Amino acid sequence: MQLFLSRLESPLGDMLLVTDPQQDIRALEFADRKTRLLRTLREHYGEADLVDRPAPERIAQAVGRYFSGELDAIETLPTATAGSDLQRRVWAALRRIPPGTTTTYGKLAKELGFDDPRAAVDIGAANGVNPIAIVVPCHRVIASNGDLKGYAWGLHRKRWLLEHEKAMPPSLQADRRGGDAAQPRIAGGARRHEFVPFSSQPVARTILRRPFRVIGACGRTAIYRAIGGAWTASANCFEGSRRKHERAEP
User: Fold this and answer.
1) CA-CA-CA-CA torsion for 86, 196, 206, 134, nearest 10 degrees?
2) What positions carry a catalytic annotation?
3) Fold of the domain spanning 2-164
4) What b/e readout covers 62-94, taking b as 16+ CB neighbours within 10 angstroms?
5) Where do the domains of the chain lie?
6) Which of 137, 164, 199, 247 is buried most deeply by CB count within 10 Å?
7) Structural contact between residues 28 and 18, judged by C-beta atoms closer than 8 angstroms
8) β-strands 221-226, 25-30 pairing
9) Closest C-alpha among 60, 61, 151 to residue 102
10) Cα(145)–Cα(31) distance, rounded to whole angstroms?
11) Is there a contact between 249 and 213 (Cβ–Cβ < 8 Å)?
12) 3-class DSSP state for residue 108?
């Protein structure tokens, strides 16, 4: 089977798009999960012939408009997936979740006709192996208590997408409003932030709504570097100390 591999830019990192000759989307992964992409393609299509080419214009434009705030721009993009019958049913149900809303694993199971509460586990498993990020919006499925639960491409991305769609659960919005004062202290007096994976590096979820990496401390202030460039800190710190940490970073 011949498939085409393209690269798309996004605010969350480059993405790898796989399409078929009909320009249906077969997979959409973040580039830092390429191993997962190749494994999924082998499982679904065997030894597929993967050819590099520019992304189809319709798909590239729709994804760009989505990230610019036109959330329904990707709603009609054509997809085609392999997988089990249950997986395809779950992925089809995900596409029916409107932008700006969320559902839970339990509700999704009931929508698909499962009355046993334990079915939510199977639904979650199918959700977790969704091969098409964002267009098949598995990020819109959360726990019944409002927790984000898991996301194959990293919880920092799930959080970003829900904030982008203005669908963040109220309980987590309240956590953000709590700010730095609500964070417990760590050794040295700095504030503790909740860490989530970003590639192979630790990052922090902060009230500034961007992923940051701790690189040092200035007195009682944790120093962060924003993934993507800019510097900030949870309180004022001397410029000289910031330069010192920057030089010390490998």
Assistant:
1) -30
2) 138
3) Arc Repressor Mutant, subunit A (1.10.10)
4) bbeebbeeebebbeebebebebeeebebbbebb
5) 2-164, 179-248
6) 137
7) yes
8) unpaired
9) 151
10) 31
11) no
12) helix
Q: Where are the alpha helices (DSSP H) in 14-118?
A: 34-45, 57-67, 85-94, 105-111
Q: Residue 134, class by beta-carbon neighbours within 10 Å (0-12 exposed, 13-18 middle, 19+ buried)? A: buried
Tell how strand 49-52 and strand 2-8 pair up. Answer: parallel
The per-residue pLDDT for range 10-66, each reduced to its tens digit, is 999 999 999 999 999 999 999 999 999 999 999 999 988 899 999 999 999 999 999
Sign of CA dihedral 39, 44, 46, 49: negative
Amino acid at 233: A
Distance of alpha carbon 137 from alpha carbon 72, whole angstroms: 12
Q: What is the pLDDT of residue 84?
A: 93
Instruction: Return d(Cα 79, Cα 180) in angstroms, integer.
Output: 42
Q: How far is CA 161 from CA 10, 219, 230, in A?
A: 11, 34, 21
> What are the helix (H) ranges across 95-207?
105-111, 119-128, 155-164, 170-178
The dihedral sign for the CA sequence 42, 44, 45, 51: negative
Q: Where are the beta strands (DSSP E) in the chain?
A: 2-8, 15-19, 25-30, 49-52, 103-104, 141-142, 194-198, 201-205, 211-218, 221-226, 231-233
**139, 161 in Cβ contact below 8 A?**
yes
- Residues 141-184: tens digit of each pLDDT: 999 889 998 899 999 999 999 999 999 987 777 555 544 433 33
Structure tokens, 158: 């799930």
Do the beta carbons of residue 215 and residue 224 sit within 8 Å?
yes
